[in-house]
Design a protein that fits this description.
Blueprint lengths: L1 H9 L3 E3 L11 E3 L1 H20 L4 E4 L7 H6 L2 H4 L1 E6 L6 E3 L28 E4 L3 E4 L7 E4 L5 H5 L2 H7 L6 E10 L14 E11 L4 H18 L7 E5 L11 E9 L2 E12 L1 H10 L5 E2 L5 E2 L2 E8 H12 E6 L2 E6 L10 E5 L5 H15 L4 E3 L5 H11 L3 E5 L1 H6 L1 E6 L5 E5 L3 H10 L8
Parallel strand pairs: 3-9, 19-20, 19-21
Antiparallel strand pairs: 1-2, 4-5, 4-6, 7-8, 9-10, 10-16, 11-12, 12-13, 13-16, 14-15, 17-18, 21-22, 22-23
Helix pairs in contact: 2-9
Bound molecules: glycyl-adenosine-5'-phosphate.
Length: 444
Amino acid sequence: MDAIVSLCRRRGFVFPSSEIYGGLGSSYDYGHYGVLLKENVKARWLEAMVRERDDIVALDSAIILHPQVWEASGHVAGFNDPLVDCRFCKKRFRADQLAESECGKRPSRHPGETPECDLTDARQFNLMFETRVGPVEETGKSVFLRPETAQGIFINFKNVAQLARRKPPFGIAQVGKSFRNEITPGNFIFRTLEFEQMEMEYFVPPDDADEWFRYWVAERRRWYLELGIRESHLRIREHDAGELSHYSRATSDIEYLYPIGWSELEGVADRGDFDLRSHTEHSGTRLEWVEQDGSRYTPHVIEPAAGVNRAMLAFLCDAYDEEVVASRERTVLRLHPRLAPVKAAVLPLIAKDTGMVEKARALYEHLKHAVAVEYDDSGQIGRRYRRQDEIGTPYALTIDEQTLEDDTVTIRDRDSLAQERIPIGAAREQLLDRLAAPWRSPKQ
Ligand code: GAP
């Protein structure tokens, strides 16, 4: 993980937040390439979940919802983790994860294992961030920052079902920030206090729920594989009964083999009718499906719930590679071209050659409206290639002496390092064709 963190910092993908004030644990800021990569992850998700389907519509609900939403959802009563403090080292631990945690003073031991450890009894700690709406502290209303995007979807079920004129099975998809006051955040952007989720609630007739659950587990696994995640690093793990959330009838996690070990990347849950029924009871609004003959039922919900940041971390880990080329070490991000922040770099071989610069600028202007391209004329060409390799740019187009003679450029492939000479006039079409071609990770 250290190599990934270091590359993210070096190339401006992700860096610690509030650094000039000493940083705030487990909060991160995303720089230019981090933003572009994160946007591509979300765009691919929206494409697969909304744009390429006619049974799912999009929603963007508020982050701060009526406080009763969280009573109905069960989060006020049950979104707790058991917490213990150590009076000696002052560290906090999840009581159910002591065996995997490190003692604050003796990291080779687990909390409670040294004579100095002085642990409190476990107490329940609600993970929701609470804040107040209203100008006056005393009279303001207590509200929560949402810990999941899903509830904004459930409370809009009636609106969307009517306005979007969909009948079950249909889904509502939402991408947005969620907040959790995690007791043990960490492992870079794997577990943070604020993060983005990509959640889709799929409303189905109750009898069809099992079938749709299996469908969505397979579909979501396929999405990661199509975007280049190696099959060897992806697995499905079913929750056993003791592990299920309060709303869940069944859950399967899609896990990725991160450098920290197999960990949850996305959860697919069969939430039954828990949410629509509970919001119906608490709000008095019937969240049901009414058939044309007047019969009614409460749809069941299948929920694929993914984390944007966790997905981005998995794509980064899967893409990170080091190799030796011509006796020199090369670090390369073998990202799927559809995820890569920059699709091609346009490089004049000699930055001071006005003829080359002119041609390169013209090519860059020609390409930039079609794809994300970068113009780079700073430093030796070798260093520029390495910089592009480290940010995962699949192609580099180089303008050299020969370009000035015959209007051809070289196109360099990030993964194979093969270079081919092509007419400059065909560069745009060739680039688009290559970017659209199927891609598999060359990593083992
Ligand atoms: N609506 C269901 C739900 O929120 P979850 O398993 O708690 O389920 C879904 O969260 C996904 O959100 C997780 O699989 C993970 O990718 C992401 N996620 C959850 N907590 C996170 C955190 N503290 N930091 C980063 N990502 C998180």
